[in-house]
Amino acid sequence: MLLNILHQTSLKCEAEGCDKEAGGHNRLCWKHDYLKRYWTNPSFRERRKLTKRTYGRRRLQVKRDKIAEALGGWRCVTCGNADRDVLTFDHTNGGGEAERKKMGGQFPMISHYYMHLEDARRNLRVLCANCNWRQNVIARSNKRRSDSVSLRRTMWRILIDRLGGPRCSICGEQDLRVLTLDHIQGGGTADRKLHGGYPEMIRYYFTHFDEASQNLSVLCRNCNWKKHRTHAGKRYFA
């Protein structure tokens, strides 16, 4: 009898078209209460976005670890580097960019190989950032560069020389193929956006070397990745 009375007196969600029971003082069901707080409370919305990103990264980490285990563990198959922060999956026969585009991005592709480990063993291998980039440079070595690309490459090389020469400022790597210009205090994406893209940014620093010496340093791909993944203590991977 008491249960029937409680059921009859229970409040219905006030959202239009919803016949679920309200979840407390707000007179909304849990779904519409969440949506209301999400769209009307900025701090709540930011907390939820952060939680979602964190959860997504953890799920991605679990899947990547499972794939790496099927491939023999987190170790570069070329140089033997076992630093998790600089390792990635490389498509053995190329075509990684096309496959990511076909599957809808990095996350769906990783999820596919997580569910199909035999495909991962056939198509993927573990490489460090340096070895992965060397493979890309070698693959593009026979392609003819336009005059604008050649000019930008020349300016990039002169900037490297002015900033201390072709040597990573952290580990000492001297292979020019894997060196890059890094923003010392971060903010590279915003800086490229400010100048209208990477080529324009290189041209700007080429003509404003005082600013280049203050803002840029030479790093290899491995050290650049490690710096990015551990920036401000936020590790993408355990």
Number of strands: 4
Derived from helix and strand composition plus strand pairing, the structural class reads: mainly alpha
Please give the count of helices: 12
> What is the molecular shape?
extended
What are the secondary-structure elements, in order, as H or E? HHHEHHHEHHEHHHEH
What does the radius of gyration come to?
A: 25 Å
Provide the helix percentage.
Answer: 55-70%
What is the strand arrangement across the widest sheet? 1-2
Summed over residues and divided by their number, the pLDDT gives a mean of 86
What distance lies between the first and last C-alpha atoms, to the nearest angstrom? 55 Å
Low-confidence stretches: 1-8, 232-238
Give the amount of beta strand, in percent. 5-15%
Task: Characterize the main sheet.
Answer: 2 strands, antiparallel
Brief summary:
This protein has 238 residues and is mainly alpha-helical. The chain has 12 helices and 4 strands; from the N terminus they run αααβαααβααβαααβα.
Write the layout of secondary structure elements.
Layout: H1 2-9, H2 30-40, H3 42-70, E1 87-91, H4 96-103, H5 106-115, H6 117-123, E2 124-128, H7 129-140, H8 147-162, E3 179-183, H9 188-195, H10 198-207, H11 209-215, E4 216-220, H12 221-229
